[in-house]
């Protein structure tokens, strides 16, 4: 039995809504991991800076901080993959909905086109909404929330990458300094 068009249309909407709902659940889940990474990194860094609390040798502390930054990089990459994958699926359902509307309900489509396509770029003005894309305005704006989520993933990936590179540099410099110190102390003492 072929699926009636109205049931198919309803299913597209349900799938789209379910994907968006799961997108937010995934983001909350990944946010917890990112916050745990930042908290662990910050806590260890503060303990390391306060030498009275830290009994860990310098190299070991740097290694642990480097390891935490690698975990942060992995979590940021997972955040990006989940954001982009979820966005691809719900945009696919929106595309199917738009195609259905185009083919089946041309009259309805003319009336509600800007609401059905769900493409934030096509929103010119919503009834009752005064839109302003200026970042510091308090009015509503045409922003894609999923793209903001992807931008957060890019930002955290950059932060963790810079931290990892910094710890590699610290390890290299500290290794060179300790070699020089050992060589000088063996020669003169």
Please describe what this structure looks like.
This protein is mostly helical and 189 residues long. Helices cover 78% and strands 0% of the residues. It has four helices and no strands. The longest helix has 47 residues, at 58-104. The model is unreliable at 120-125 (pLDDT under 50).
Give the key terms:
4 helices; mainly alpha; 189 residues; single chain
- Could you state the oligomeric state of the chains shown? single chain
Main sheet overview: none
Q: What would the average pLDDT be, to the nearest integer?
A: 78
**Percentage of residues in DSSP E strands:** under 5%
Strand count: 0
Q: Which residues sit in consecutive blocks of at least 5 with pLDDT less than 50?
A: 120-125
Helix/strand-derived class? mainly alpha
Q: Note the total helix count.
A: 4
> What is the distance, rounded to the nearest whole angstrom, between the alpha carbons of the first and last residues?
92 Å
Q: Helix and strand succession?
A: HHHH
Radius of gyration: 26 Å
The coarse silhouette is: elongated
Relative helix content:
over 70%
């Amino acid at each position: 039995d072929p699926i009636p068009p109205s049931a198919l249309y309803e299913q597209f909407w349900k799938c789209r809504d379910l994907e968006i709902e799961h997108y937010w659940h995934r983001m909350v889940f990944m946010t917890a991991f990112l916050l745990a990474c930042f908290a662990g990194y910050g806590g260890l860094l503060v303990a390391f800076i306060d030498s009275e609390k830290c009994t860990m040798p310098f190299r070991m502390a740097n290694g642990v901080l480097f390891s935490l930054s690698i975990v942060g990089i992995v979590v940021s990459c997972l955040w990006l993959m989940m954001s982009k994958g979820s966005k691809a699926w719900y945009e696919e359902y929106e595309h199917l909905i738009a195609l259905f509307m185009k083919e089946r309900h041309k009259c309805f489509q003319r009336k509600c086109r800007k609401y059905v396509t769900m493409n934030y770029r096509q929103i010119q003005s919503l009834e009752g909404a005064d839109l302003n894309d200026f970042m510091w305005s308090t009015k509503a704006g045409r922003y894609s929330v999923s793209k903001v989520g992807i931008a957060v993933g890019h930002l955290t990936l950059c932060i963790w990458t810079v931290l990892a590179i910094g710890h590699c540099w610290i390890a290299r410099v500290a290794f060179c300094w300790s070699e020089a110190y050992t060589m000088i102390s063996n020669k003169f003492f």
